[in-house]
Every structure is written in C-alpha cells, then in structure tokens.
Amino acid sequence: MNEALVYRGLTLGILSLVFGISATFRRRADRVGGALQGENGLRLVVVLRLLSLVVLLPLLGYLINPVWVAWARLYLPSWTRWLGAAGMIIAIPLATWALRSIGTNISPSHATREGHQLITHGPYRWVRHPLYSVGILLCISLTLLTALWTLGVGMLIPLAVLLWRTPREEARLIETFGDEYRTYMRRTGRFFPRIVTSVRSPAA
Question: N or C: which end of the chain has fewer CB within 10 A?
Fold first, then answer.
C-alpha cells in the first residue's frame, strides 16, 4: 500500500474522531451546563476560529490532493511521521479523559459557567489545563504526520493567544474560587505536571 496514502488516511480518521469527541462533549455542556458568566471573550474565540480555518486550508488541500500543497511540504523520514501518528493516537484517550473529567464546566472562552465547579480529579489532579496540553500535542503531531510546515508556523499564532489568554482564565477562576484555586495552583502545573510541588511551610 502507498505509504503517503496511509498518512492521509490516518490524518483524516484521527482528526474526525478527535473533532467528533470534542463536539459531543461541548454540545452537552452548552445544552445542560450553566450560562457563561461576565465578559465571555467570545469575540476572541471567533477570531481564533477564523485564523484556524486559514491555517487549515493547506491541510484540506493535502487531504484532497497533496500535489496542491507540494510547496508547503517538509521532507521528513518515515519514523518521524509515524511518531506524529502515534502522538495523535495518544491524544485521543487523553482528550476524552480531560473532557469527561471537566464535564459540563467546559467553556469556549475563559468565562466560567453558572454553577461552575472546581475540577481537581482526572488529569486535573496534576495539570490545570490538560485540554490545552492535548491541543499542543495534537498540533505538533499533526505537523509531523502531514509534513506540512504551514501547520507548524500557523499554529504559533493560536499558541501565542493561548499563552496570553490562560492567565486571564486563571484570574477568572481565582475570582470564582478564591483561596481554593490558589492552593490548587500551588500543587499543579499549568500545562504539564509539576516536577516539584511547592508546599507552604507551617506557621511558626
């Protein structure tokens, strides 16, 4: 079988599964979760999604006819592309775990929902934003699997916005949960687990 065709088939299949799982959980949150509270940042979400469409246009061309995006191709060894496939496959259960853990609290923006609960189980036991971590893994893995340099470069913009947005999201959570969230921050990593967990020393 043509190896290039296998890469394209894996790309389409895994992305369809990831988007399908994400859409299922997000629709449920919109249907039964509480309303978004305060400034919800949906304008930023719309801008990010439009930017994503532009970034993903070469990916669509790759899936339909790779010749159309030959100008955007990297020449990577087979093991690198299979590594990308493995990363995307690993991301599926990780994303499902995080989405199942956060449940109806998931939001398209940094706003919290009415009746929002602080989630500290599942991957949230170690990482405050595991969905973002999975997203980073997916972006890197997708770039390797498709060998499209445009994906890697294009994803730098959403990544920069993500790094800008996350502290604001955490500020919103501090407003909602106060010291409970501050304590949670001290024992968890933002995107990756802490190697050393800070512990407040007892008062003298």
Answer: C
Q: What is the tens place of the pLDDT at every residue in 113-140? A: 566 778 899 999 999 999 999 989 998 9
Q: Which amino acid is at 40?
A: N
| Closest CA relative to residue 6, chosen from 84, 93, 91 | 84
Give residue limits of the domains in the chain: 3-187
What number does CATH give the domain 3-187? Answer: 1.20.120.1630
CB 147 within 8 A of CB 59: no
Task: Please state the φ and ψ torsions of residue 36, each to the nearest 5 degrees.
Answer: -70, 140
Q: What are phi and psi of 73, to 5 degrees?
A: -90, 145
**pLDDT tens track for 98-113:** 999 988 777 655 555 5
Both tokens of 105, joined, read 């609290």
Amino acid letter, 143: T
